Amino acid sequence: MVTSPHPLASAAGAAVLDAGGNAIEAAVATAAVLAVTMPHFCGLGGDAVWLVADRQGRKASFLGIGAAAQTLPAYDQPIPLRGPGSAITSAAAVDSWQHALDYGARHWGGQAGFSALIAPAIQLAEEGYAPTASQGFWLDFRNEEIAQWPGFCAIFDHRARSGPFRQPQLAESLRLLARDGARSFYEGELARRIADGLLAAGSPLTLQDLAQTRTRTAEPATLDYRGLTLLAPPPPTQGVSTLAILGILSRFDLKNLPAEGSARYHLIVEAVKQAFLDRGRIADGDVEAIAASCLDPARLDAKAAAIQPEAALPWPHPYQHGDTVFFGVVDGKGNSASVLQSTYFDWGSGVVVGDTGILWQNRGAAFSIDPAHPNAVAPGKRPFYTLNPGMALKYGRPHLIYGTQGADGQPQTLAVLLTGLIDHGMSPHQALAQPRFLLGKTFSDGRDSLKLEASLPHTVIDDMAARGHVVAPLAALSPLFGQAGVIRIEDSGDVIGAHDPRGEGLAVAAQNRPG
Fold it and tell me: Per-residue pLDDT tens for 210-236?
């Protein structure tokens, strides 16, 4: 099964599975199509974070995170959120595709060629597709900004055009990748075009920076929760924040609280706050020490004890925003991949790289310019990262594959999803349909309030306010709550999956099922 935010991407992945490919090969086909059909959230100019696991007990995280340029300007004010000044980190998504395929060839018998896997993406870029409501929503949302981004509207603003949305320059870049291989993005003809385009735009990234881009394999961070082992990517991602939230919640009896009751939502919100108080220490550094500190059992005990059941902890906390795509795959042998792919903000930096049709990410805006901050910008350093795809193992085997878009909202949404799936026994469809919340600032609301989805009962919203939360409603199924996906592998081997009702994504079942 494949779940992703675009039906064409899910179909491309499922076709690989039906042809006998493994989960990683299907994920690469899915990723490439998403890079074409979801340009507002991801693309060749972005990054990707992977979790993979199989029935033999192997598990790994692939951190396709681009590093800052080796030569950076002197900063006396915050890094810009858009424009060439934000395009200061390399893009590792394409490298992560090949890195994952190499792993799949070693451990899962992968044989599919890179060029064949990205062929559907090339065809869609060349022939076009019908833009989604999500793509139109984020064009409308940034309407006043996009006119200021050189070259952007000529390529990406489809609203005044009829017919399929075509990207011929991107198709040519993909054809070069198919001809020369994934590393040509960093060291070949395409790399030279990219470097020239970045230089012309005013980015400090060079051909040397591209050539040094490499995906890293790391041990996932882990946490035991109700008999399951939860996996998350390690720092510099916020995966340990998600695990810390669940670790705090494991100290409470959520099973006996009403699923849509204020007591459950209050506990989850307060657990998010407690975990987020430690998030500032997450950075590119001593990964094991950072994870051990955030997930220390005594620390989680203290945070759980600090939660007052009838009173909200005053907030705010520094806000990180951005968008991404989640997709998950399970193949016929139970091999599983959970992936997030992103250009950080919707539409990334807004920088179109020369004649490549590639939109570059603005992940560099996540750095701090305070030299004493753990996430201080520095040459060759990876920024704090919001991407954190997840997986839960049962008896050491993949059981739940899950993830969501939404930057700060990712750990919050995952806490709602996982407690629904695990504590309340919900199906993937039911868990994804649950009302959600967003704590703090959002794209549409700069107040440090608790945004509650209007599908929550009014009595619950009123009770949350009575507990001291500064509540603000958001429309039911609002795109601002992000798009999540879940696949569950039952003990019998049956697979159940779903994608978020807040988007147009789809879970597609393949013929090859776990035996």
Answer: 999 999 999 999 999 999 999 999 999
Sign of CA dihedral 348, 352, 353, 355: positive
Q: Strands across the sheet with 437-439, in order?
A: 437-439, 450-453, 471-474
Residue 414 buriedness (CB in 10 A; 0-12 / 13-18 / 19+): buried
Domain presence at residue 495: yes
Q: What is the pLDDT of residues 30-49, one digit of tens each?
A: 999 999 999 999 999 999 99
CB 328 within 8 A of CB 17: no
CB 21 within 8 A of CB 112: yes
Cα Rg of the chain (Å, integer): 21
Q: What's the number of domains the chain is made of? A: 1
Q: Examine the residue annotation and report whether 242 is marked as an active-site residue of this protein.
A: no
Q: Which residue has the higher pLDDT, 407 or 21?
A: 21
The Cα–Cα gap between 482 and 472 comes to 17
Please report which confidence band the pLDDT of residue 515 belongs to, taking 50, 70 and 90 as the band edges. Answer: very low
**Residue 342 maps to a domain:** no
Residue 137 identity: F
User: How much is the average pLDDT of 110-124?
Assistant: 97
pLDDT in tens, 458-488: 999 999 999 999 999 999 999 889 899 999 9
Residue 377 within any structural domain of the chain: no
Rounded Cα gap, residues 11 and 33, in angstroms: 10
Confidence of residue 90 (pLDDT cuts 50, 70, 90): very high
The structure tokens listed for 401 are 């594959």
Residue written as token pair 């950076």:
72
Question: What is the DSSP annotation of 277-321?
Answer: TTGGG-SSS-HHHHHHHHT-HHHHHHHHHH-BTTBPPP-------
pLDDT at 160: 84
Amino acid identity for residue 398 in this structure? P
- Containing structural domain, residue 237: 220-321+387-503
pLDDT tens digits along 266-296 = 999 999 999 999 988 898 988 889 999 999 9
CATH code (residue 478): 1.10.246.130
| In-domain check, residue 459 | yes
Pick the catalytic residue: 213, 215, 242, 324? 324
